[in-house]
Design a protein that fits this description.
Blueprint (H helix, E strand, L loop, with lengths): L7 E2 L6 H15 L5 E2 L8 H11 L3 E5 L10 E2 L10 E6 L2 H9 L9 E8 L10 E7 H5 L6 E6 L4 E3 L3 E3 L2 E4 L2 E4 L7 E5 L11 E3 L1 H10 L9
Parallel strand pairs: 2-13, 7-14
Antiparallel strand pairs: 1-7, 3-8, 4-5, 5-12, 6-7, 6-11, 8-13, 9-12, 10-11
């Protein structure tokens, strides 16, 4: 039997009743002013609300352990890809990918992150459902280096998206976005590790092995060991 793909598919979204409730909650929350904390008490999983409002309203999500950011200022990032190696505010047009960053306890547990989110460009010009890969340094995974965080919802007007990549002969659209100017959040919502539907699927890796394989084969993501 062939090994399962290392990439994860997003679980199903809910029906029309839930989506209508999500929209109503978001509109009420925005009425409270910039950076309003969304009081989420709906019966559907929190990640579904986040995914819906980010996609349907074309927002940019940013996950953080800091729960009181009033304005995001551009900061120099260090990334192998030129798009991510600039002084900018970074975020994602994918709520689940941003949730991953919100729940990682990186201040207490140093870790190397190997992760991705993408949609493949199909023959009809549409995009596939999103797929994901999540991995952190093995000692951090063994220590269960997760804790509650905050997910910020940002306006998209100043952001630009990372150009598509070639993946196995197909164009892959990565939902990473960057703004070269400061951004004030529209709203924010608290998230906890148990809200993240892929918590049990986060992998652990050997940092030295990953770095060696990435250097030898930069296009070999995810460099499984």
């Amino acid at each position: 039997m062939a090994e399962p793909s290392p990439f994860l598919k997003r679980p199903p979204m809910p029906g029309a009743e839930a989506l209508a409730a999500f929209d109503a909650l978001f509109v009420r929350s925005l009425a409270g002013g910039p950076n309003m904390l969304i009081d989420y008490a709906l019966p559907w999983p929190r990640w579904q609300f986040i995914s819906h409002v980010v996609e349907s309203r074309q927002l940019i999500a940013h996950g953080s352990q800091d729960g009181d950011i009033r304005q995001f200022e551009p900061r120099q990032s260090h990334d192998a890809h030129p798009f991510g190696n600039r002084q900018a505010v970074y975020g994602a047009s994918d709520g689940l990918w941003s949730m991953y960053y919100a729940i990682l306890d990186r201040s207490t547990h140093p870790m190397l992150l190997v992760n991705s989110a993408a949609r493949l460009e199909l023959e009809d010009g549409l995009l596939s459902d999103p797929f994901y890969f999540f991995s952190i340094s093995r000692p951090a995974l063994e220590a269960r280096a997760f804790r509650p965080g905050m997910l910020y919802l940002l306006p998209p007007s100043s952001f630009e998206q990372m150009p598509p990549l070639e993946l196995g002969g197909q164009r892959a659209h990565v939902p990473q976005w960057a703004s070269l100017v400061a951004v004030t959040p529209l709203a924010r919502i608290a998230v906890a590790p148990e809200d993240f539907p892929f918590l049990a699927e986060i992998r652990g890796h050997d940092d030295a092995v990953i770095l060696e394989r990435a250097k030898a084969d930069p296009s070999g993501f995810p460099w499984l060991d």
